[in-house]
Structure to design on (611 residues):
């Protein structure tokens, strides 16, 4: 009898443990990071994961050097549809509001919104002139069918054990005991089988990641019956540019429409990719680069505010990811042609926002630029005279592309090593930005590299034809650097390595320059450059400084955001140039809450060693 009681207690304990089903974490996944070029501000919104329902959604707004102070009004709007009409009746109605006061100092400014249900939502951001709508999904708690089977099997087994015990004590004939005992065995078999098979069953499609999110499939993704498939891809999209009547030096708004390539219908299913819904690249006639993040103002409709300084042609490309469709890079077939306007002799670009030769922001309207400082190559505090009538615009020295070597952008020494890039072979380009590991991850990466080419040398160096040349360039590429080496030793600490290891170390000969052009290109130390190529000598920047490895998650699945200044100073890129010729390269990284954009000109040699 004692043995029977002990067995019953063990079974009850086991069923009690199983009685707490393992539920999907409602906050599964990390924080959502979305960069937005909102008017004259370039902001990063951090949507912290919701830890319980109902509960708060914490929104942190990260500003950059030169961002204008002001107030943003935030709202949370449920957008999900449901088979239950009552449940979906509040879709499109703002259920929670808050405001954020942005200061003049770069940093994080937060607010909290109330979230009362799982499903698709929109974060509405209003700066008083325009409204951005950022879609996001709040996951629900759902128990999978295998978990239900395990739970039910163990609970049933526990109950039947009690029945078996009662029958064994009360009934004289032992044969009756076999009935509930058999039920115990069957229940345990169901539970164990479900537990073993659960690992082999395919998970349901992820709402908001593979299929469109609704209230129903977010709340219980297992309740929606779908054909089993591993292919959730969708057709490519078309990018249409709206008219841009603004002239050189004037503010204007560029509107973009995204349509399905198979049906022509609006494609309102872009998902956050590399920290933004859309990455817009604009290359101007002078070779300036704008890296912007248009705001979503309506389904499949985006807009960005610009102030293009020079008359001429601007090439436009967008990179985004469609729901279930993967990453796409779509180049506008037409680009933009900007007419000449009044001479633009505005104040010197000395605001922090001008940390990239790409205008660092859609509107150059003040000393501090008041705009998304990091949308273009570094201005470096130089005066920019736009497209003065009757002649080509004079570019500041920091906007002029140079070959590998050392130069200074915004007071920060930047050294590029690009050892003998050859067509068809993987090349390692290493940029040392500053001399301390204080780079901040921008758009989830330590560094970005934009590549356009191959180009005719005259076009690649022209102050008026670069936009038209980029429009027809065979290659547009966007590469990333996740961080430095894993050893904690910087590449510059390795200069004593044998000569035959130069390529592996990312140093050695800088094949992107022509012989004897070091002085003409205006860069390079006398000791570090000879005949247009790098020697093994250092430039004295950051000797002995370690380089932190790639971005590691700091909050569950959430990587470090821009508030963490602990990476670099090296940003390395591996890229294979498909053709020989001249390439324009822009390297971008965030340091001291400002985006530095450094323009380069590389010459890629033909395969086989010919130069």
């Amino acid at each position: 009898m004692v043995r029977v009681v002990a067995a019953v207690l063990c079974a009850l304990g086991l069923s009690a443990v199983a009685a707490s089903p393992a539920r999907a974490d409602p906050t599964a996944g990390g924080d959502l990071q979305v960069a937005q070029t909102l008017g004259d501000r370039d902001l990063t919104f951090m949507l912290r994961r919701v830890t319980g329902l109902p509960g708060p959604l914490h929104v942190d707004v990260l500003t950059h050097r030169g961002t204008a102070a002001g107030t943003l009004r935030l709202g949370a709007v449920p957008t999900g549809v449901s088979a239950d009409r009552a449940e979906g009746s509040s879709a499109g109605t703002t259920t929670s509001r808050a405001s954020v006061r942005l200061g003049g100092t770069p940093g994080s400014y937060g607010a909290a919104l109330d979230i009362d249900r799982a499903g698709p939502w929109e974060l509405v951001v209003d700066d008083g002139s325009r409204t951005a709508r950022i879609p996001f999904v709040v996951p629900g708690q759902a128990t999978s069918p295998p978990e239900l089977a395990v739970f039910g099997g163990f609970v049933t087994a526990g109950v039947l054990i009690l029945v078996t015990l009662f029958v064994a004590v009360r009934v004289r004939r032992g044969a009756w005991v076999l009935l509930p005992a058999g039920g115990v065995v069957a229940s345990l078999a169901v539970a164990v089988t479900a537990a073993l098979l659960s690992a082999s069953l395919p998970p349901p499609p992820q709402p908001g990641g593979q299929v469109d999110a609704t209230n129903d499939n977010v709340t219980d993704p297992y309740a929606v019956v779908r054909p089993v498939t591993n292919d959730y891809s969708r057709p490519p999209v078309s990018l249409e540019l709206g008219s841009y009547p603004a002239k050189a030096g004037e503010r204007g708004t560029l509107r973009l429409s995204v349509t399905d390539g198979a049906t022509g219908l609006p494609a309102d299913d872009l998902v956050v990719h590399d920290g933004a819904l859309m990455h817009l690249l604009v290359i101007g006639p002078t070779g300036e680069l704008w890296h912007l993040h248009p705001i979503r103002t309506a389904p499949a409709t985006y807009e960005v505010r610009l102030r293009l300084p020079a008359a001429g042609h601007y090439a436009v490309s967008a990179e985004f990811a469609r729901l279930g469709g993967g990453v796409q890079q779509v180049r506008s077939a037409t680009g933009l042609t900007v007419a000449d306007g009044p001479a633009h002799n505005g104040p010197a670009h000395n605001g922090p926002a001008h940390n990239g030769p790409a205008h660092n922001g859609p509107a150059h309207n003040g000393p501090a630029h008041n705009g998304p400082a990091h949308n273009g190559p570094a201005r470096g505090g130089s005066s920019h005279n736009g497209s003065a009538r009757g002649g080509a615009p004079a570019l500041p020295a920091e906007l002029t592309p140079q070959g590998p070597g050392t130069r200074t952008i915004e007071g920060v020494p930047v050294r590029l090593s690009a050892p003998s890039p050859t067509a068809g072979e993987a090349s390692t380009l290493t940029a040392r930005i500053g001399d301390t590991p204080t780079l901040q991850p921008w758009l989830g990466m330590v560094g970005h590299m934009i590549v356009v080419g191959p180009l005719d040398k005259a076009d690649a160096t022209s102050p008026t034809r670069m936009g038209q040349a980029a429009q027809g360039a065979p290659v547009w590429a966007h590469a990333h650097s996740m961080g430095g080496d894993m050893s904690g030793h910087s590449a510059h600490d390795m200069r004593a390595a044998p000569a035959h290891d130069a390529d592996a170390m990312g140093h050695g000969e800088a094949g992107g320059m022509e012989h004897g052009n070091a002085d003409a290109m205006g860069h390079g130390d006398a000791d570090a450059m000879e005949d247009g190529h790098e020697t093994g000598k250092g430039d004295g920047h950051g000797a002995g400084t370690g380089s932190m490895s790639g971005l590691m998650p700091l909050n569950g699945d959430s990587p470090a955001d821009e508030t963490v200044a602990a990476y670099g100073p090296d940003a390395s890129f591996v890229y294979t140039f498909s053709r020989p010729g001249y390439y324009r390269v822009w390297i971008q990284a965030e340091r001291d809450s400002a985006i530095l954009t450094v323009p380069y000109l590389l010459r890629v040699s033909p395969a086989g060693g010919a130069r």
